Automatic annotation (TrEMBL):
A biological-process GO annotation: fatty acid beta-oxidation using acyl-CoA dehydrogenase
GO MF assignments: acyl-CoA dehydrogenase activity; flavin adenine dinucleotide binding; oxidoreductase activity, acting on paired donors, with incorporation or reduction of molecular oxygen, reduced flavin or flavoprotein as one donor, and incorporation of one atom of oxygen
Signal peptide span: none
Record's GO cellular component terms: cytoplasm
Keyword set includes Oxidoreductase: yes
Source organism of the structure: Dendronalium phyllosphericum CENA369
Domain Acyl-CoA dehydrogenase C-terminal: 251-387
Keyword annotations of the record: Flavoprotein, Oxidoreductase
This protein's name: Acyl-CoA dehydrogenase family protein
Pfam families, sorted: Acyl-CoA_dh_2, Acyl-CoA_dh_M
Length: 412
């Protein structure tokens, strides 16, 4: 059952336009999101109200320069915010993952009229979703397009096809779609989600990240204007060989989940009315075993955040490298992709271990459905399953041993 909450009408948060990484309103927003996160996850309440609040805050413009109407944040600041949002609600953080990935690609591209138009829409609050994956492709994540095709129609095109795992698109204003151009080459389009013939279906049934709108998108004779198509030969497309933001984004959300686990573990012990008869202390708060367990979760949270932000620093070095030429830019991009891959291996493990330690703190009573503490493991496990770690570890090892560059396509 899907419920439509009315909580948005009750909030009194007023936003500057737009919020920045250090805006006081940003913490108010995250506190509001966190307040209902567990209930939403347990009862499958889709967070349309929260996404609308994010629109109003213009959080999606965080990386757009101030001169262009955005928050002007660095990449490190962006990922600090992602960790905080993942702490508040990993579902909501995942909803905006593709938004920030696509926005980053536009920011790295030439400022043509259409790119300025798209950035202006984001600065005004628009949220971008993604439709890329096709189950008919034999290898996932490799940008292969099989059935989503453009056909000429006057001075524009018509689009027909089907995409899966369209995370965030259910809530989005614009959708970024990988398509086949009429000549058989790969192209991208960025179109409004309210186009006639575009259908977003909420059919994601994973045990974690239940509210992300990671469903099916179908296109039935959808009109696409000529300037909404980005061809491989266009000079205003992003040509960076490594697409680092999407994967590091998921790792940052897992770092945020560890923060949330720490908060729940601390609250459990402080509010625990009894303990085991053979425990060292009669008061849970004074029990050294419980203190040690929480201390380990706290250390995991610190390490995960530090690792994510260290990888994010590489993204902030890209503009200077770009000014030095293609070779320097590619070298920094490779190093940053390598850091992001290593970060995933470690942070995913820390998140899953921390989610298990939470049950060591509370015992059997913490497994009650009403508590919904299992959401931490379910969500972390689902996030970790994106681009499985054994493939990441193999690629890292091949690079270290043989100097083989990391895969450059998809969300590696």
């Amino acid at each position: 059952m899907i419920k439509s909450p009315e909580k948005l009408a009750d909030t009194t948060i007023q936003f500057s336009a737009p919020v920045r990484a250090n805006s006081p309103e940003l913490q108010q927003l995250f506190d509001f999101i966190a307040l209902g996160a567990s209930d939403r996850d347990r009862d499958r309440i889709l967070p349309f109200d929260v996404v609308e609040l994010i629109r109003r805050s213009r959080l999606g413009a965080l990386r757009i320069p101030v001169a262009e109407g955005g928050g002007g944040s660095t990449a490190r600041e962006l990922f600090e915010v992602v960790i905080r949002l993942g702490d508040a609600d990993p579902n909501v953080a995942h909803i905006v993952r593709n938004h920030f990935s696509v926005t980053e690609r536009i920011l790295r591209s030439e400022r043509t009229q259409r790119n300025r138009r798209w950035l202006k829409a984001v600065a005004d609050g628009a949220i971008i979703g993604l439709a890329s994956t096709e189950l008919e492709a034999k290898r996932s994540g490799g940008r292969q397009v099989v059935n989503t095709k453009l056909t000429p129609d006057g001075n524009g095109y018509r689009l027909n096809g089907r995409k899966y795992y369209s995370t965030g698109s259910l809530y989005a204003d614009l959708i970024f779609v990988r398509v086949l151009a009429p000549d058989g080459s790969t192209a991208y389009i960025l179109i409004p989600t309210n186009h006639e013939g575009l259908e977003l279906v909420d059919d994601w049934d994973g045990f974690g990240q239940r509210l992300t709108g990671t469903g099916t998108t179908t296109f039935t004779n959808v009109r696409v204007e000529a300037d909404e198509v980005i061809f491989e030969t266009d000079t205003d497309k992003d040509d960076l060989p490594y697409n680092i933001v999407p994967q590091l984004f998921l790792t940052a959300i897992n770092a945020g989940i560890i923060r949330s686990i720490l908060r729940d573990a601390t609250a459990l012990i402080r509010n625990r009315p009894r303990t085991f008869y053979h425990a060292v202390s009669e008061q849970a708060t004074e029990d050294p075993i419980l203190q040690q367990t929480v201390g380990q979760i706290a250390a995991n949270a610190f390490a995960a955040e530090a690792i994510v932000l260290a990888a994010a620093d590489g993204l902030d070095r890209l503009p200077a490298a770009q000014a030095q030429g293609e070779e320097a830019e590619t070298a920094v991009a490779l190093a940053t992709s390598l850091s992001a891959a290593k970060a995933k291996l470690i942070v995913d493990d820390l998140a899953l271990r921390s989610a298990t330690l939470l049950f060591e703190v509370g015992g059997a009573s913490t497994t009650k459905k009403s508590s919904n503490f299992d959401r931490h493991w379910r969500n972390a496990r689902t996030l970790s399953s994106h681009n499985p770690n054994h493939f990441k570890a193999r690629a890292i090892g091949d690079y270290e041993i043989n100097g083989t560059p990391l895969p450059q396509r998809g969300f590696f």
